[in-house]
Amino acid sequence: MPISLYFYSALNAVKTILAADFNCRQSEFEEEGIFIHHSKELPGRRRFPFREKSLSIATMGRGVVVSCSIDRLGWCDANLSQLSRNDIFTPSAVALMEEFVKKDGQTITGPDLKYICTRDVFKPFTPDKDIEITVTDDPKEIEQYQDERFPNSFSYPNNQILVIAVARRNGKIVGQAGAQADADTLWQIGVDTLPEYRQKGIGKAMVSALTEYILQQRNTPYYSTIESNAASRALAASLGYQTAWIELYAREIKA
Fold it and tell me: Class for domain 131-239, per CATH?
């Protein structure tokens, strides 16, 4: 199926943001090869905490871009530059990186699949009648709904949550999803449902509601899931989301 103009435009916007994230040229995502750069806190990057000890890798299907702190450039060049695009995301390569960053109190997260959705491919979903989904962008209500039972709906506390969807069954809150602006036009959706209410379409309904809201704001919704989470991947695909890039990165080990 040929790529639509809407999706092509969204991919180009993502490429611009990733180029700022990884301190690289946009064209490197379109060329074959492994491209290694030192990380910089550049304008236009996603609003994630900037790590002085960094190691991140991303591909949009062709070129692989590695961004790392200056003191890690030598190791990345010696250990990653000769790998192929397919090899660099394999368990053995991830284990090698894991061993390298462990001495700095870090672990490797991913590979994560990053999906985006555009209005021409979006497939809205309506839940069963006993499930009520409400959406609010009122800051006071959003603050009220920041419930510790739903940590995945508020992944990055430093980023402003702009809209939230709440799922109720018989008046009881059973799930929440939040959307935050990781970049001005790229909003990430996080979702959580209470364990006993999963596999009932509730998470899908909340993601659908937030996707519709974000698209109405003329922004691009994106959704992230680890490669092994088949249920989460199926949810994204069922709403029309398509893979835009793959990413892994080093982060601090949680105490």
Answer: alpha beta
